[in-house]
């Protein structure tokens, strides 16, 4: 190998590492944005309300013969 081939190989390896670092940073940022969006959607859901004035036996049995 001559000096130019070694220099070219070294530059290629360095560029590949930089591309991978940038790709990982973009992926992490996208995941952060997605997590933030999901949290906002969950926070936007209305609070669950309990059913008022229902008898205590309601919902204890399932009709499996219907």
From TrEMBL:
UniProt-listed Pfam families: YjfB_motility (PF14070)
InterPro entries: YjfB_motility
Protein's recorded name: Motility protein
Organism: Pseudoduganella umbonata
Organism ancestry: Bacteria, Pseudomonadati, Pseudomonadota, Betaproteobacteria, Burkholderiales
